[in-house]
Amino acid sequence: xxxxxxxxxxxxxxxxxxxxxxxxxxxxxxxxxxxxxxxxxxxxxxxxxxxxxxxxxxxxxxxxxxxxxxxxxxxxxxxxxxxxxxxxxxxxxxxxxxxxxxxxxxxxxxxxxxxxxxxxxxxxxxxxxxxxxxxxxxxxxxxxxxxxxxxxxxxxxxxxxxxxxxxxxxxxxxxxxxxxxxxxxxxxxxxxxxxxxxxxxxxxxxxxxxxxxxxxxxxxxxxxxxxxxxxxxxxxxxxxxxxxxxxxxxxxxxxxxxxxxxxxxxxxxxxxxxxxxxxxxxxxxxxxxxxxxxxxxxxxxxx
Length: 303
Prior knowledge:
This protein is α+β, with helices and mostly antiparallel strands. About 25% of the residues lie in helices and about 35% in strands.
């Protein structure tokens, strides 16, 4: 015969089981929230570190532009160089660079005597022979007709010898954009010393980079994709914001949508070649940084 105490013990066991079930559900929810918060914190930390690195790079770049030699001997060249030739399924890789003559008196780190003109070059150098990652590097050279940054042979030698100062790494895309005194934009420009023309009034610098866990553990394709534009699903940590372009293997694509479901279009953008991509292909979603940098005396050549 069951007594009242037996009934109370039965209810207690039932309540305990229910409590354990609710605790398990609550724990799973809390862990999910914590993981989301940690991912957001890591993304914010990456962005914050990127902001600081880019700010330091811009400060140095502006210092060099402020030292631009604006006299009759001054020159400036904005162009590209072929960092890697085309191979099967991969287009040639061209990287931007800007070169100019600067006043050594404003660059004591290069010319302690502060008397010699200094050649300055900013460009991107590949990190290794296979990846599309590069380093933003600053090269300097005291003016010397026998060894000048206007000569491709000298530049290639300095790159091979690792003579430049690495300012940023993890760089996927870089652009120097010049604005002349009439407001015209140009990605290529050549102003030689014998030319009476003014220099650009400003140089815009745009960098897209990936660092930290976003580089070590990039998002991956969940399934293969063909060349045609299509909606894809990615696996990995969501970025703070979805960029305009993503690097899919060695191919640049335009992206839109909400992570993890994105639409790839403009296949083969940025002078890359479109190609079918297999599942688990890494997809790098870079952070974009931009700055507008005034040129010394607004680019006016002093005569």
